[in-house]
Amino acid sequence: MKKNNTTVLKGLHIASWIIFIGLCIEAGALLFNFVFTLFQPLATQNVYNGLDLSVLYEKEFPHFVGIMSCIVILAFMKSYLFYLVLKLFTQLNIVAPFSVEIAKIIEKISYEAFSIAMLSIITKQYAKRLIQKGYELSDTSAYWNDTAAFLMMAAIVYVISQIFKRGIELQQENDLTI
């Protein structure tokens, strides 16, 4: 493989690590702040990055727990997605890329991206109903506004996983022929 391709892959691996660490920090901070607000309601005015859910906390505590749970779960799911990407980079062998392990990881990535998209859609509709009831939740949309991107990613990565599966089949047939 050319040196340029190796450099690009190493750069992508480093970028994935940076994104993974950032997502883990965000997920941990959201979880900590969510638990903290359960004991200190005053903290609901700034749950995370200026997110103010104090009115929802005071008037509809179960909905506060529901929205915050969805936000925290989405953050952890995104972290897990990048964990799978890192796992892919560590197990990827460019000389012989068609392996069962790589195909399984790629398929898991597609399923995880699809799960993130589905939970984002559900949470978006849930928040939309709360907004219709008069609650201010406009700041929360930043946590699930990338639904279309995750749906597209899931579709593309799933197709790639199917190509990998077919590549493995062809490689095994070729090995049997020789």
Q: What attributes does this structure have?
A:
0% strand; elongated; mainly alpha
Shape verdict:
elongated
Strand % is under 5%
What is the count of helical runs?
Answer: 5
What's the end-to-end separation, in Å? 25 Å
Low-confidence stretches: none
Radius of gyration: 21 Å
Order of helices and strands: HHHHH
- What's the total count of β strands? 0
Instruction: Report on the biggest sheet.
Output: none
Helix content estimate:
over 70%
Task: Quickly give the structural class.
Answer: mainly alpha
In total, the number of domains comes to 1
Mean pLDDT: 87
3D architecture notes:
The chain has helices at residues 3-39, 54-59, 61-91, 100-132, 147-177. It has 178 residues and is mainly alpha-helical. The chain has one domain (3-177). The chain is elongated and about 70 Å long. The mean pLDDT is 87.
The gist of it:
InterPro entries: DUF2975. With 178 residues, this protein is mainly alpha-helical.
Write the layout of secondary structure elements.
Elements: H1 3-39, H2 54-59, H3 61-91, H4 100-132, H5 147-177
Helix pairs in contact: 1-3, 3-4, 4-5
